[in-house]
Write a structure and sequence with these properties.
The structure holds two protein chains of two kinds.
Chain A lengths: L10 H20 L3 E3 L10 H8 L5 E7 L7 H18 L4 E6 L5 H9 L5 E7 L2 E7 L1 E7 L2 E5 L8 H13 L5 E5 L12 H7 L4 E5 L12 E7 L7 H12 L3 E5 L3 E4 L4 E4 L5 H6 L2 E3 L2 E5 L2 E10 L2 E15 L1 E2 L12 E2 L6 E3 L6 E9 L4 E5 L1 E3 L17 E9 L31 E6 L14 H14 L2 H10 L11 H38 L1
Parallel strand pairs in A: 2-3, 8-9, 8-10, 10-11, 11-25
Antiparallel strand pairs in A: 2-6, 4-5, 6-7, 12-13, 13-23, 14-20, 15-22, 16-17, 17-19, 18-21, 21-24, 24-25
Helix pairs in contact in A: 2-5, 5-10
Chain B lengths: L1 H16 L2 H19 L1 H4 L5 H19 L1 H9 L1 H7 L4 H33 L4 H27 L4 H17 L9 H10 L1 H9 L2 E3 H27 L1
Helix pairs in contact in B: 1-7, 2-4, 2-7, 4-8, 4-9, 7-8, 7-12, 8-9, 8-11, 8-12, 11-12
Classes of the chains: A alpha+beta, B mainly alpha.
Amino acid sequence: MKRKTWSISSVSNLLIIVAIVVVVNLIGLRIFGRADLTENKIYTLSKASRRVVGNLEDRLTVKAYFTKDLPPPYNANARYVQDALADYRSYGQGNFLFEFVDPADEEKLQQEAQRYRIQPVQVNVMEKDQVQLKRAYMGLVLIFGDKHETIPLVQDVRNFEYEMTSAIKRLTSDSIPKVGFLGGFGTPDLGQDMRALTTALSKHYQVVPVSTLSGNQLISPDIGVLCIVQPKEPLDEWTKFAIDQFIMRGGKVGWFLNKVNADVQNSMASGIQLGIDDVTRQYGFTVANNLVMDINASMINVQQQQGFMIITNMVRYPAFPRILDFNTDQPIVKDFKELALFFPSSIDTMTPPGGQLEFTPLFRTSELTKIQAGRFDIIPMGQIRREDFNGGAKMLGATITGTFHSAYAGKQVPQPTDTTSVAPGRDIITISPETRMVVIGDGNFVQGQFAFGGTGQVLFLNSVDWLSQDSDLMSIRSRETTIRPLKPDISDATKQTVKYANMFGPPALVLLLGALRWTARRNRRKGGIR
Amino acid sequence: MHNISYIFRREFRSYFDSPIAYIVLMFFLMISGYFFMSNLFLLDQANLRTLFGIVPLLFVFFIPAISMRLIAEEKKSGTIELLFTYPIRDSEIVIGKYLAALALIVVLLLFSIIYAITVSLLGDMDVGQTFSGYLGLFLMGAAYLAIGVFASSITENQIVAFIVALAISFFFFILDKILFFVPLSLANILEYLAIEYHFQSISRGVIDTRNIIYFLSMIFVGLLLASHALSRRKGD
């Protein structure tokens, strides 16, 4: 067949076409589109982020300090960050700008990065036939007016959007969120027992003592998070009502409760009644009146008189469990490896009537536990007998999210504690908007004498952070951590059947198909011969 | 168009008239089924990630087996000369044969949808992501097949065609796994050339024009080179 103008057999024509293909690919790298087919739109900027960036009222600049030509897999992160920032920009209505800079060769940029607390990290690079360490920058800073927020290292792109959007939110909100602490009822003193904690908290929050003991006041609506840390005396009805209505208005509550009062001096412990079980049951949980002991426990020093001498011994103390089992999908304890608790009580969860609640365990003890209740001794030198520790793993921390129903629905407004004031004739809110709680079966770990471990404070701060976030940010986080397990109730027999059916079924089907076609052809051929 | 469809039907039928299609399908499904099912309940995840992990490697071996005879055999038996006497363009021969082999890959993927159905019955599978993964498998298979067709067009020995296709396919397969060992200046280019890099991007559940352009380019260049090789031979 004759070709008129050009022929595919010509090498020069071929090269031209290949060159065009290369150019098309290069252009395609700059002009591109994406369609996210995943159910939760994991790879698309979430509605929450779009809204946050779309509501910017002033210019927000992102300066990304990224070393050029990073080796894989870091280069993929850089590309992801670039794509994500471009997405933010497209929803930013002109108020979101970003630029990429490489501080590698520029002293000035390095100092600038340093000022924003962006440190270079060491990455392995193959150069001239040997593995070399290279200093790489992979951080960025968001600048908004005279404020800035830093993301010092983008290591895992899965929570990049979360970090970005929460940083933008922090930059653009003009009020410091308030965290309230319930006072009275034997709760620890903010200025003394919890000083280290309140100091750390006050970097991001305004710490406010909350008292419900005078007048007929409810909890101030500008408080976002209320922490109830280890009361030792029963709460009165008015206080419970105030907390209830706080929740019903969308307030977030962190419960840090021990239901055991440990008297270290006399080595005795006894359960305490806080009178709140009827209320918390309505929110889907109760903290049990017990002490959970775990063989996996912290060591303590015990002094002992032996003849003339006082000997100090290190002993394992089961009443101070060491927690190793964390639900690392939950942002509060995501990076936790270990946590020391002190005289903790276990948490029971239940679904209250009509409630739409979701429970997420945070951590639990080992399987080897011993549950004590009533009045009992807590002498450290007691023999630890393994066979006594058969209580099984106990949940000591959990989060609850959803819409809560009031414990006071259909009831009278209770009498204020201060008897001179009158119960207000106000309406009782009976159902809360979407809100959340953290429940920890221990309130000791945040207090001076026990807060030596360090992770306890992190747990508390993370809990407050998590509680104070708005649901926008949570939706980004939870979207990214969705795991899709198989149905839990598949029987072993079904599993075996499914397994072998899928292994041998399809090949058998092919064989059958082949046999059918072969027979058909043979019959046809026979027919043809006749 | 008519010529392409003629070549297509002729080739596709011959796959199923000979044992090739059945052998390829059976072994492919046995291996992928084994790897997929052996840890599905262990991982306890309602997705096809294991399948999408093993199939790229299987394709490297199976697709050259599908494509090796396409042109090489006709060259050897001389029937290609017969084809040349018809008013059919070289590119039409190549495209027709390519589409026939591609149809076999589609049949293969249709069989493997049984796995997807199984998983969706056992748990809450992300359908969009799975669909995207299958699209990725199809595009990746199509790219490997274009390499195979090219390999088959440059020789009249099927074994040679198989080995050449395997070598080129393996090269594109391994590219993104050896990036650590290459100088930085090359790494980004090699990564872009790597087939699996683009497949993985799609199998996450995101259809990106950059990946699509890459696969279409691979297919186009492969078929172009095959047509070129065929036309050169005729010129001899």
